[in-house]
Amino acid sequence: MCGIVGYTGRRRAVPIIIEGLRRLEYRGYDSAGVACRDDADNGRILRRRARGKLVRLEELLEDQDIRSTTGLGHTRWATHGAPSEDNAHPHCDCSGDLVVVHNGIIENHRSLKEELIAAGHCFSSDTDTEVLAHLIETELDGDLARAVRAALARVKGSFAIGVLWRGAADTLVAARRHSPLVIGVSDAGSHLASDIPALLPYTREVIFLNDDEMAVITSDSREIMTLSNGSPINREITTVDWNAAMAEKAGYKHFMLKEIFEQPEAVSNTIRGRVDPESGGITLPETGLDEKSAARISRITLLACGTSWHAALIARYWIEKWCRIPVEVDIASEFRYRSILIDANSLVVPISQSGETADTLAGMRRAMEMGARVVAICNVVGSTMTREADGTIYTHAGPEIGVASTKAFTSQLAALFLLTLHLGRLRGSIAPETAVRLAAALTELPLLMEEELRDLESRTMPVAEEFNRARDFIYLGRGMNFPVALEGALKLKEISYIHAEGYPAGELKHGPIALVDREMPILALLPRDPVYDKAVSNAEEVKARRGRLIVVGSRGDEKNLRELSRHVLVVPEIEEDLYPMLLSLPLQLLAYQIANLRGCDVDQPRNLAKSVTVE
Ligand code: AGP
Q1: How many Å apart are CA 8 and CA 441, to the nearest integer?
Q2: 91-95, 379-383, 516-520 — which is least confidently predicted?
Q3: Is the Cβ atom of 492 under 6 angstroms away from ligand 1?
Q4: Could you write out the DSSP letters of every residue in 142-190?
Q5: Interstrand relation of 44-51 and 31-38 (parallel, antiparallel or unpaired)
Q6: What is the pLDDT of residue 246?
Q7: Is 308 near ligand 1, meaning CB less than 6 Å away?
Q8: 565 Cβ below 6 A of ligand 1
Q9: Could you tell me the pLDDT band of residue 197, with boundaries at 50, 70 and 90?
């Protein structure tokens, strides 16, 4: 999730671009760059880029007197190519006369790059974005908009782009598909941005671009058109009434709430280009595994902390079920000190949102010393874990600002399910028709998450209002939904400070049931899965002891669920393996709403840090 800013008008472009990037830095901060068209020097394109936070770029620009009034800027969240100056946007073509900034993922960038290199193009970065600059260059014939359309017609994936060309004074071209882009109209000229916060210092008059639309903007004109053939579109100007703080959170009260609602997009971006629902095929070259090396794996160890450990616990069910390989799941801080049985036939998968968690890094290093192949699951390109692992499957969840992990968790699950299918296909342990069924279910998941989230707040709020003064909570789940119960409990305790425990539903009667009384809220996960009847029996044990039951189950089963509790939350029906991604959503929102009602600091809970880089 990167930040794009563009401007053309009557004022100097660099200060406007830098101020805009500063307000988008939450979208990514691996590197930043700016490019301007120097009207005083025959339109020459000036480009300045710096690795690290925006302040590095500002330092670079301090002694520069760039008078240009047209330019583009970018703050990067790396997806392809580690954070570096060479990989920083804007990227240019061979001539240096055309530059592009981009937010998204070009899925077919490898094949396009090979074709362009064969045609004599030279590349200077590892990014997918640079391919766009060269592709547009090959189509340039004087009409920049047409060249951009022709180039994007060959692109698969997601993009929001800004293009600047020496041959077109006072002009920026923009286009979008599956990544946001908005145009601003001010007295100073025309603006382009990934998100509204970048525009607010100059205007509240905005034009939203929709998917597969493009725009040609000059200081006094904004033409919107279709990406397919340039047909004009008449788009009204919208006046936004957000303040800057609200805008950074896209109108949500907290980053955590925004990130809960970003999960369909995060999961969609994580699986994009990696799964073919028609054939059940999985594309994961990052693992470096082929049929031979996959067949040699005798044991898999999943290594993580906190929420990432819960993702590992869920993945264990999948991998043992579909790959028929024994799986150990270890809390990283324990793994490091155990006498572990790891060898060259072991696959170790450290899972980490940040890629900087000290315990997980230490465990990974120990596994590598013992000869294991290490394939990481991580959300931060260029983080320590990704630089040391043999390979990394990135979750493309974008920066997760809230300390309580949400979109990273469901994106980790999506990546782990991809790994399961990939291993199963390589080892021949998944029948082709089953692979197609599972791949199709995974492809449909983001839509079902979107559907579930649509009215979820109104459904969980009554529960939050009734239980936000509780002293304790117990979450129950069976099978692969036991780790979901652990995750629900962790979400609640880490942001609301209510003591909460997740338990295997079948374990309640072996002790914890003694805690059940008229005060104790017990949330039971009861999706229609193979262990449904058993889990319902456990919930009935609670009801018989007058426990305060909350049940979360499958849509269509409300009648049965209402016999257990008056607090019923349901999720769409889905392939049983994927229920954890859907069941997590009400648990995240419930924890958020309870914490909010208790006046807690949801985004930065006491005693916690987003990345635990100490042991
Ligand atoms: C999650 O809500 C917590 N903030 C925490 O448990 C986190 O999952 C854990 O510290 C691991 O972090 P990582 O995924 O960045 O390694």
Answers
A1: 45
A2: 379-383
A3: no
A4: S-HHHHHHHHHTT--EEEEEEEEETTSTT-EEEEEEBS--EEEEETTEE
A5: antiparallel
A6: 66
A7: yes
A8: no
A9: confident
pLDDT in tens, 484-495: 999 999 999 999
* Angstrom distance (rounded) from CA 150 to CA 498: 56
Distance, CA of 504 to CA of 482 (rounded, Å): 5
C-alpha torsion sign, points 440, 446, 451, 457: positive
* Cβ–ligand 1 contact at 403 (below 6 Å): yes
* Distance of alpha carbon 414 from alpha carbon 420, whole angstroms: 10
Distance CA(456)–CA(89), nearest Å, equals 38
What three-state secondary structure class fits 600? coil
Ligand 1 proximity of 379 Cβ (cutoff 6 Å): no
Each residue's pLDDT tens digit, 572-609: 999 999 999 999 999 999 999 999 999 998 988 877 77
At 399, is the pLDDT very low, low, confident or very high (cuts 50, 70, 90)? confident
Model pTM score: 0.79
**101-105, 112-116, 237-241, 379-383: which has the highest mean pLDDT?**
112-116
Any idea what DSSP says for residue 10? S
**Cα 551 to ligand 1 centre (Å):** 26
Is the bond into 90 cis (omega within 30 degrees of 0)? yes
pLDDT digits (tens, 9 = 90+) for 115-156: 999 999 999 999 999 999 999 999 999 999 999 999 999 999
Closest CA to 207 of 237, 171, 250, 241: 237
Which residues participate in catalysis according to the annotation?
A: 2, 610
- Is residue 301 in contact with ligand 1, taking CB distance under 6 Å? no
Amino acid at residue number 142: G
The pLDDT of 199-217, averaged and rounded, is 94
Q: Which two tokens stand for residue 74?
A: 């970018």
Q: How far is the CA of 406 from the centre of ligand 1 (A)?
A: 10
Atom of ligand 1 at shortest range from CA of 404 = 2
Q: Name the phi and psi angles at 30, rounded to 5.
A: -80, -35
Ligand 1 pocket test: pick from 378, 405, 407 the residue with the most ligand atoms within 8 Å of its Cβ: 405
Task: Provide the 3-class DSSP secondary structure of residue 295.
Answer: helix
Which amino acid residue places its CA nearest to atom 9 of ligand 1?
A: 306
* Cβ neighbourhood burial of 530 (10 Å; 0-12, 13-18, 19+): exposed
Bridge partners, residue 37, by sequence: 45
Residues belonging to the chain: 615
Q: Which residue has the tokens 């009801």?
A: 543
Instruction: List, as one string, the DSSP characters of 63-98.
Output: T-----SEEEEEEE--SSS-SSTTTSSPEE-TTSSE
Q: Which atom of ligand 1 has the smallest separation from the CA of 360? A: 16
Residue 306's closest CA among 107, 528, 483? Answer: 483
